[in-house]
Structure formats: C-alpha cells, structure tokens
Amino acid sequence: MTLSGPFQPTEVELQILRVLWELGPSPVRDVHARLNAAKGTNYSTTVKMLSVMREKGLVRRDESDSPHIYRAAVTRESAGKRLVKDLVDKVYDGAAMSLVLHALRSARATPDELAEVRRMLDEMDGQ
Amino acid sequence: MTLSGPFQPTEVELQILRVLWELGPSPVRDVHARLNAAKGTNYSTTVKMLSVMREKGLVRRDESDSPHIYRAAVTRESAGKRLVKDLVDKVYDGAAMSLVLHALRSARATPDELAEVRRMLDEMDGQ
DNA sequence: TTGACTTAGCGAAAGTCTTCGCTAGGATGA
DNA sequence: TCATCCTAGCGAAGACTTTCGCTAAGTCAA
C-alpha cells in the first residue's frame, strides 16, 4: 500500500483525526482526553489507535519532545474530498449533484455561506 | 435495535442496496450476477448477505414467488441523507456547507443541475 | 424414479477493527 | 534509593463483517 493509497480512515480513526484537526499537534494525553470524554476510551486504546494510524500513514509524530507529539498527516480537506467521492460513488452512482442537493437540504447555512456557494456556481457557469 | 434505528449499511451492504435501487425488486440470482461480476463473489455469500440485511431491516423479500424477490427497504434518498449527515458530522463538524463546496468542486454538473442548485439557494434565501 | 440444476440456509472460518491487560522505561519527589 | 506517576508498546481478546463449504429442498425433464 503506497503512501498516497486509498486509505479510508475507519470510524475511530476519523474521530481521532478530527481531534487532531481541531487541536492541532498534540500529545496522546490530549487526544485521549477527548476520546475518553466522548466514549470512555481507555488510554491504552488511544495509544494503540495512534500507533495503527501511524503505520497507515494517517498521523505522524515528533519524538524529539518527551511526550511525543502527534499530528494529522492528512488534511481535513483531502480526507473530506476522498470521503465525498466515495459516498458519491457508493450511493449516488457518481451523481455528485444529488449529494449536493441532499447536503444543502440538510444544511442550516448562513447567508455568507450561501453567497459562497453562489460564487462557486458562477465560476462553474463561466467555464 | 429498533426498526428505524441508526443502521449504517456496511460496504457490501451498500453495494447490494445499489444493485437493488438500480434493478428494482430482484431475485438473488440477479443481485448475485452483479456482485459476482464486480468482485467474484460466491453465490452463497450473496444469499448470506441478503439474509443478514433482512435481519437488519435493510431489505425485504416477497416469498410468494418461487425465486424469492428481494427489494430495498430503504430508499436511496434516506440512506444517502443519513450518510451525508454522518459524513458532515464526522469530518466537517456539522458544517454541511463545507461538504457542499467539496462536492460541487468535484462534480461535473450540467447547466440544468446547476440551475436546480440555484433554485434551491433561492428557496433557502427566502426563509 | 433418477439425475441435473436452482434456490435457500446454517454454521463456522477468515478478515478487519477496536479494545484493553500487562509490562516496562523514564521522570520526579520524598 | 524507592515509590509513584506518566508514557509507550505488545499481543491477544472481542466484536463485527464478509466469505464460503456443505447440506437439503424444490423443479423439471428423461
């Protein structure tokens, strides 16, 4: 499996990535605090998951400091992009617009956000 | 687990649902033909998966005809809706608009589809 | 009836994901 | 030094998903 391979993060892995995306580079302790709060995860489990994720290339760690510091090796954008593509393929048979409409329908968007979507539409029209 | 419970179809289950959404109510044979073509699945496996899905309430079957006829018990829309919500929660922390933008970016939309998105935006503005 | 073929189902194996017990090293303060 | 606490890791258990071998019932034609 190459580094840029089709690594779909699993459920818990995604949960951990989210914590790292939000907190930025963090020691196990901080990641664990979140997981434990969310679902009573054991410290060992958090360590193990991070180690599994490291093998998969989903996170990296800096060992120069004593409590090692973990950081996400994939951005929220790239993970999201892949998951969206996957969802579109798996459920909508490639019809991304169906998903857009569903998502819009379920979104409670601010005027600013709506404006941005419009901007994007205009761009797409232009081409 | 209630009937309307949070049943996230698994990978293969989704694959089967897609076949049923596309073909409509079908005997195992037809579902299997697709799975087998896609990934060499054994007939027994298809039968088993359908039976598992039946227990989970993801498909129903009509036994009045001799080859039993299976049909999806969830619509593409409802499954999609749930998966979108899930994705939004898990990756975008509830910011559905981020997903919309991602999906738009990866979509190759027809003018008609773009128009529909606009219509939808107008509606949302109105409220 | 017999043989060939299709359909159905069970149970267990294989695979993957998640969890945690147990062990141990390193740091800190008494 | 010793006890305590924090950090790290391994390996195995447990849970869930997916696969398939084997069995058997039903259909149909020779």
Task: List the main descriptive attributes of the protein structure presented here.
homodimer, 127 residues, mainly alpha, three-stranded antiparallel β-sheet, 65% helix, 8% strand, elongated, DNA-binding
Order of strands in the sheet with most strands of chain A:
1-3-2
Write the H/E string of chain A, N to C. Answer: HEHHEEHHH
Which parts of chain A are unreliable, with pLDDT below 50 for 5 consecutive residues or more?
none
| Cα-atom radius of gyration of chain A | 18 Å
Largest sheet of chain A: 3 strands, antiparallel
Number of helices of chain A: 6
Decide which structural class fits the backbone of chain A. mainly alpha
User: Largest chain interface and its two residue counts?
Assistant: A-B, 43 and 42 residues
N-end to C-end Cα span of chain A: 37 Å
Write down the oligomeric state. Answer: homodimer
Note the beta-strand portion of chain A.
Answer: 5-15%
Task: Say how many strands of chain A there are.
Answer: 3
Mean pLDDT of chain A: 89
Brief description of this entry?
2 copies of one chain form a homodimer. By secondary structure, chain A is mainly α. Chain A has helices at 11-23, 28-39, 43-56, 76-92, 96-106, 111-126, and strands at 26-27, 59-62, 69-72.
Explain this structure.
Chain A has a three-stranded antiparallel β-sheet with strand order 1-3-2. Chain A has helices at 11-23, 28-39, 43-56, 76-92, 96-106, 111-126, and strands at residues 26-27, 59-62, 69-72. Chain A contains six helices and three strands. Helices cover 65% and strands 8% of the residues of chain A. Chain A has 127 residues and is mainly alpha-helical. In chain A, helix 2 packs across helix 3 (43-56). Chains A and B meet through helix 1, helix 4, helix 5 and helix 6 of A and helix 1, helix 4, helix 5 and helix 6 of B. The structure holds a DNA duplex (30 and 30 nucleotides).
